[in-house]
Amino acid sequence: MARPGRELNPDRSARDLFGAELRRHRERAGLSLEKLAKVIRYSRSHLARIEAAECLPPPGLAEALDAEFGTGSLFVALYKIAQREAHPDKYRRGRELEAKVRCIKEYAGCFVPGLMQTADYARALFRTGDPTRSEEKVEEMVALRMSRQALLQADRPPELSYILDEAVLRRPVGGSDIWRDQLAALAAVASSRTHLVQVLPFNHGEHPLMGGHLTLFISESGATVAYEETISTMEFLEDPIRVARHRRAYEMLSACALSPIDSAAFIKTVIEEIPR
């Protein structure tokens, strides 16, 4: 039985508008998703997700829809806008991807990634990020961050790979005790079967991901969504060319970083250097 169509708000985002127009023209043509998928030769499940505004349309789909529905360049124009638009709810989108994908690869240049943070480390980051936050709000955010880590206890957790810039290990977030506990937690997972952790040492020099934070969400089929973050911007990338460029940059850094065994040893060395 087909699931009911998700309620769309065309005023909310370009991808909602794209999905609403796809649904409207499909229903006006008397086509089910199955029939439309066969006509334009796209996956029914993929079309359903696009119509529900859950993912960006792939290149070529807009032209196929305009040709099928006789809509001139309507879908092409909507696709161009959707390509440039930031996702309307970045945090929700990130959590949905974490829960669905098969593999998560992440480069961190400044701080420990959320799925590996201790509560005290996260608390220190949230307090510093906005000094006007109330303690109640800080604790709420810490609880939410810790709840994400339940994903790691799932029957089939995603494969996790991390590249950590040496700066992540050297910055004493929260003071010596919190810093030491966080690195100890990192060292423990770096030596586990569930995580692949590599350290990119300072002596590597410059690289294409400097100044940012990159996450690659890779599905079972290999489809990849990239998420990049800087001090003031956060963006999900689904355009295949841009995603491929980021994936290549990650692979290059992985090849240049320390091996997982050497990385675990490096982290333990940093712990030993922390003054008590």
Helix/strand/pairing category: alpha/beta
- How many helices in DSSP terms? 12
Tally of distinct domains: 2
| Cα distance spanning the termini | 62 Å
CATH fold topology of the largest domain: Endonuclease, Chain A
The CATH architecture assignment of the largest domain turns out to be 2-Layer Sandwich
- The strand count comes to 6
H/E series: HHHHHHEHHEHHEEEEHH
CATH top-level class of the largest domain: Alpha Beta
Helix content: 40-55%
Low-confidence stretches: none
Biggest beta sheet summary = 6 strands, mixed
CATH evolutionary superfamily of the largest domain: Endonuclease Chain A
Q: Nearest-angstrom radius of gyration? A: 22 Å
Note down, in words, how this protein is organized:
The chain has 276 residues and is an alpha/beta fold. It folds into two domains: 14-84, 434 Repressor (Amino-terminal Domain) (Orthogonal Bundle), CATH 1.10.260.40; 90-116 and 154-273, Endonuclease Chain A (Endonuclease, Chain A). Helices cover 50% and strands 13% of the residues. It is built from twelve helices and six strands. It has helices at 14-28, 33-40, 44-51, 61-69, 74-84, 90-100, 119-129, 135-148, 166-170, 176-190, 240-256, 260-273; strands at 103-108, 159-165, 195-200, 213-218, 224-229, 234-237. Strands 3-2-1-4-5-6 form a six-stranded mixed β-sheet, sandwiched between helices. Helix 4 packs antiparallel against helix 5, helix 7 crosses helix 8 and helix 10 (176-190) packs antiparallel against helix 12. The protein is elongated.
